[in-house]
Structure formats: C-alpha cells, structure tokens
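Risk register update: the risk of archive-format incompatibility is retired. Evidence:
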Amino acid sequence: GIGYFGGMFRLFMNAGGKKDGTFRSLKDHSPGSKRKEYSDRALRTLGSGDLRGAVKLPPDEDLNEWLAANTVDFFNELSLIWGIIHDVGLSTIPAGEGFPPGFEYRWAPDKSRTPQACSGPEYVDFVMTWVDKEINNTSLFPTSSAAPFPRHFLQSVKVLFTRMFRIYAIVYWHHFSTLEEVGASSHLNTSFKHFMFFIWEFDLVLPAEVEALRDIVEELRARYCATP
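Archived output:
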C-alpha cells in the first residue's frame, strides 16, 4: 500500500493540487502476496511509532522479499514527493546544476557507458524512469513465489537505494521550500528518516554517498543508534 503518503497526496489534491500526468502511477503489491503482507506489516509498525522495528526483517522471513517490498514502497513515496514538486513547478536549470554542494550526479543513457552531464531535475526523472523499469523487470523482481531471485539481487538493490538516496539529496538541497509551501515537508522528513533507518539496517548505501546530506544524516544516525 502507499500508506501515509497516499493520504498526503489525497490531501494535496483536495487542496487544489492538479494532476496533469507528472505523478507516476504507483506500484501496488499483489493481493495475498508476501510483499503485500510485508508492506502492510511495516505500515502498521510505522503507525505505532516504532521506526526501528518497521525496518527489521521479520523473524523467519525471506530477506529478498523484504528488500523487494520495501524498494517498491520507497519508490512510491519518492514518486509522490517528486510529483508534488513537479506539479508545483520546476524552473529550467543548466546541466551540472541543481545538485548538493560538492556533488554532481551524471547519467549514462541506454547503450552508452559514458555518463553525461544533466541537471538535478533531469537526473531525478532519469532515475525514477529507471527504477520503475527495474521494479517491473520480473527477472529481477519475480512476481511468482516459484521464481527465485537472481544471485545479484542484493547488489542491484544497493544500486537502486543509492540512486534513490540521491533523489532525496536533490530534494532537500533544492526543493525543500516547495514542499514547505504545500505543507508536505514533514512528510518528506518522515519518509527520509524511514529510508535511512532501512539503509542502515541492511548496509545498502556507502558512507561517501550520504555525505551529501551530512548534517541531517548525522542527527538521524544518532537516533538510529539510540533505538534498540
């Protein structure tokens, strides 16, 4: 399910936000599937305020299924966050701009091994399109319980989470005020805290990457370590 971000999205739309195709269709889990069960369990735990508990692998459950369910849920949250920013309005900026200070993310188009310069908003759109495609790739995210996950699944998830982290970094540095204007900044903060707790629980993103949001990350890391 889309959880509290679905509620936030509906509130935004009711308040006059427009839908013109910039919001991606959200990915839902198949009814009765393990991923649906895991997503609902995490949502219930989040509702209780136990964020550390919400990211832990449930006892005797499959790690790959847990990673897959949460990857989809975080993608949905980012889709809603970026959709709101996109709908409020984005200014055109040159390639190489719109990134965290000291960072420039580049993107290699299909069939090209050479990453090319782009702007922050362009990078977000490239990543969101790519993550969407990866999640729908049944050889990577099998939809049948009889189909095994590929051997490289964990490594692929690490790349997915690294690139999704970069979207959060771009949003915080350059689009936070937009979310404040529509009353969605607290939802961003809650989503990012959940995202970072999940990253640390399974060691998904390198420390050098999270330097892009050092001050926020250090505060969240202290809370994560203080929570049993």
